Amino acid sequence: MSLNPFPDPSDVAGVTAEGAAWLASAGPYPRSTLALWEERPDAPLVLPCGTVFDVVNVPAVFGRSLLDRLWDEGPGSGPVAVHRGRTLLFTAPGTARRLPSLLDAEEWDGGGAVPPLLCHGTGDAVTVPALRPASGAGRPPASRWLVAPDTRDPWLPGAEAVCWAAMRAARAAASAAVRISIFPPVDQGAKVYDVSRRR
Predict the structure, then answer these.
(1) How far apart are CA 31 and CA 36, in angstroms?
(2) Taking the CB of residue 62, how many other CB atoms lie within 10 A of it?
């Protein structure tokens, strides 16, 4: 009896067989990776970056804003995962090398700071979530898919699209920031009494 490790393709949160084949093609032994996933579909794996995809690793809250910009105002995204409180955006190979210099060279009004982005490219590896989450109650998994791979040839944003979305997300965060203080404004004309010597 063989257990099908791949969820129903109509399940948008699940990795399809084609998506798993695409992920596995990043490693040196794709058939072994697929065999392992068939045996343990709830196991996350470490895959190398640089040939099939690069990964831009951002803080979760900023990552959500960046994805909103990519989907609402831009070209969309390819696969996206969450791993240990960070968002992993799968991008076109070469993005990890180009994105930092694009962000540094971009002359913009500084309406908001882009947080440090971790760019994983050639020579790096990332942990990808399991094909399907482990069953059981309790805490949510440390890694999961937000946009699961569902094709052998997904569209992946390049450095320019990610740079554009990151700058827009930073500007939106800066304009939405509200400064709240628990202390009332200082009244410059107020009389101050030293009560520490009071008996």
Answers:
(1) 9
(2) 19
Q: Which residues of 143-162 are buried (b: 16+ CB within 10 A; e: fewer)?
A: bbbbbbbbeeebebbbbebb
Vertex 119: Cα angle to 12 and 37 (nearest 5): 40
What average pLDDT does this structure show over 142-151? Answer: 92
**What is the distance between the alpha carbons of residues 48 and 23, in angstroms, rounded to a whole number?**
10
* % of the chain exceeding 90 in pLDDT: 59
Which is nearest to 147 in space by CA: 74, 68, 94? 68
Amino acid identity, residue 43? A
**71 contacts 133 by C-beta, under 8 angstroms:** no
Residue 140 has pLDDT above 80, yes or no: no
The helices-and-strands tally (H runs, E runs) of the chain is 5, 7
Give the span between the Cα atoms of 13 and 195, in whole angstroms.
63
Question: At what angle are helices 30-39 and 17-24 packed, to 10 degrees?
Answer: 130
pTM: 0.79
CB 47 within 8 A of CB 126: yes
**Residues contacting 197, CB < 8 A, separation 6+:** none
